[in-house]
Amino acid sequence: MKFLDEYRNKELALLLSQSIHRRTHHPWKLMEVCGGQTHTIVKSGLEDLLPPDISLVHGPGCPVCVTPLELIDQAVAIALRPETVFCSFGDMLRVPGSSQSLFDAKARGADVRIVYSPLDALRLARLSPSRQVVFFAVGFETTAPANAMAVWQAEREGIGNFSILVAHVLVPPAMEAILSSEHCQVNAFLAAGHVCTVMGYEEYLPLSRRWHVPIVVTGFEPLDLLEGIDMAIAQLEGSRAEVENQYSRAVRREGNRPAQQRVAEVFEVAHRKWRGIGEIPSSGLRLRERYGHFDATTRFPTSATPVNEPAECISGLVLQGIRKPHECLSFGTRCTPESPLGAPMVSSEGACAAYYLYRKA
Amino acid sequence: MAQFSAACPLPTVTGETVLLAHGGGGKLTHQLIEKLFLPLFASSGLEARHDGAVIQLDAGRLAFSTDSYVVQPLFFPGGNIGDLAVNGTVNDLAMCGARPVCLSAGFILEEGLPVGQLRTVAASMRRAADRAGAALVTGDTKVVDRGKGDGIFINTAGIGLVETDLEIRPSSVASGDAVIVSGDLGAHGVAILSVREGLEFETVIQSDTAPLWESVRALLQAGIEIHCLRDLTRGGLASSLNEIAEAARVGVSIDEAVIPVTDPVRGACEILGLDPLYVANEGRFIAFVPDRDGDRTVELLRGFPVCSSATRIGRVEQAPAGLVMLRSRIGGHRVLDMLSGEQLPRIC
Question: CATH class for domain A25-310?
Answer without folding.
Answer: alpha beta
